[in-house]
Amino acid sequence: MKYIVTGGAGFIGGNFLHYVVDKYPGDEWICLDKLTYAGNLETLAPVADRPNYSFVRGDIADRDFVFELFRKEKPDVIINFAAESHVDRSVSDPDIFVKTNVTGTVTLLDACREFGIRRYHQVSTDEVYGDLPLDRPDLLFTEENKIRASSPYSASKAAADLFVSAYHRTFGIPASISRCSNNYGPYHFPEKLIPLVISRALNDEKIPVYGNGANVRDWLYVEDHCSAIDLVVRKGREGEVYNIGGHNERSNLEVVKTILRTLGKPESLIEFVKDRPGHDMRYAMDPTKIEKELGWKPKHTFDSGIPATVEWYLSHREWWEHIISGEYRNYFEKQYGL
Ligand code: NAD
Ligand code: DAU
């Protein structure tokens, strides 16, 4: 089988390629990535020399390029990780989120219609369900929840999901969708909360916490997300949505304090800053469907995943130091003024 993995030079797509390339040596894995600020070929170094892996640079929203690639490669499976993924950037510049996340998805789906496909899989997010109140811990998102996006990022991901479902129903594209909660782990770009806290605390820099830090996220170690996607692509039913999450809800303040404790750094590094506009209060996934139907179980808890992640950032300083010394530094100064 020939797979095209889009966005494979990013955080989750990169971890996914690390997970599958050696596990399935009889399959061919092509990474298609535009290499935006978030894409990094250094993330793909662990698989770069494998004979069943190759890299193509390109934009999923570039119709001529995508159709030519499909004509040449005749892929069996597309797994679409490629996206603009950062909520804060979608607040300051929504347009690129529409181009990549919506037009890019539709372009891939059109290529699937034109050339045929065995499976198209869309990597989506819990954010398409909006948020949950803090005072109702009994409520979790199921696959039946209404789509109710809050940010330009989540609106673009929700629109993409609706196109995937529509192409399945109208054109019979054999498609599936998975919606996961917040990921963390190796190769996570340091603009996102957990790697931002680790990298800044290691340099004794201030840690910006939005609002009062009470917002809750449901954290999943990235390898568990990869195993879930692998299962859905191979065994999940066409036309279905699968929620992914490991019941690891933590407030942002708890997350920051846990990391500071793990690193032996003082809580005085915490600085409360202006809240994110439209900031979602709480996400929490109900993964019963994927657990019961496909037998998925996460291997990691928050308590085992955080020390493993801190350890990875300590032993891979050059990976994140390259990032924070580059273009990202300008973004950080503009975003926080810190
Ligand atoms: P990321 O920002 O780390 O990586 C995105 C990758 O996509 C980068 O390599 C980038 O170069 C590439 N890309 C961007 N625009 C492109 C384009 N037009 N054409 C080709 N490649 C392009 O993102 P991530 O955190 O790894 O997220 C991957 C996917 O998983 C996204 O679809 C995201 O919505 C979804 N998701 C993320 C999380 C999370 O916690 N990070 C949770 C659930 C779902
Ligand atoms: O839930 C899944 C989503 O998780 C994915 O779809 C997104 O691609 C991914 O970026 C992530 O979105 P979040 O907005 O939840 O992640 P982020 O790391 O940006 O923020 C996590 C929480 O921490 C959120 O409540 C905002 C807060 N935060 C974030 C940053 C960057 C801070 O308090 N300070 C910060 O500096």
Short description:
It contains 12 helices and 12 strands. The chain is α/β, with parallel strands linked by helices and about 350 residues long. Helix 5 (about 150-170) links the parallel strand 5 and strand 6 (about 175-180).
Can you walk through the features of this model?
By secondary structure, the chain is of the alpha/beta class. It has one domain (2-187, 219-250, 284-300, 318-336): Rossmann fold (3-Layer(aba) Sandwich). It has 12 helices and 12 strands. It has a 7-stranded parallel sheet, sandwiched between helices. It has a 3-stranded mixed sheet with strand order 7-9-11. Strands 8-12 form a two-stranded parallel sheet. The radius of gyration is 19 Å and the shape is globular. The structure holds nicotinamide-adenine-dinucleotide and 2'deoxy-thymidine-5'-diphospho-alpha-D-glucose.
Overall average pLDDT: 97
Number of domains: 1
Strand content: 15-25%
What's the total helix number?
Answer: 12
Q: Strand tally, please?
A: 12
Helicity range: 40-55%
Using the 3D structure, state the CATH architecture: 3-Layer(aba) Sandwich
User: Would you state the CATH class?
Assistant: Alpha Beta
Supply database-style keywords:
338 residues; alpha/beta; Rossmann fold; seven-stranded parallel sheet; three-stranded mixed sheet; 12 helices; 12 strands; globular; binds nicotinamide-adenine-dinucleotide; binds 2'deoxy-thymidine-5'-diphospho-alpha-D-glucose
How is the topology of this model organized?
Elements: E1 2-6, H1 11-20, E2 28-33, E3 53-57, H2 63-73, E4 77-80, H3 87-92, H4 95-115, E5 119-125, H5 152-171, E6 175-180, E7 182-184, H6 193-202, E8 207-210, E9 216-221, H7 222-235, E10 241-244, E11 249-251, H8 252-263, E12 270-273, H9 288-294, H10 302-315, H11 317-324, H12 328-336
Helix pairs in contact: 1-7, 2-4, 4-5, 6-8
Bound molecules: nicotinamide-adenine-dinucleotide and 2'deoxy-thymidine-5'-diphospho-alpha-D-glucose (DAU).
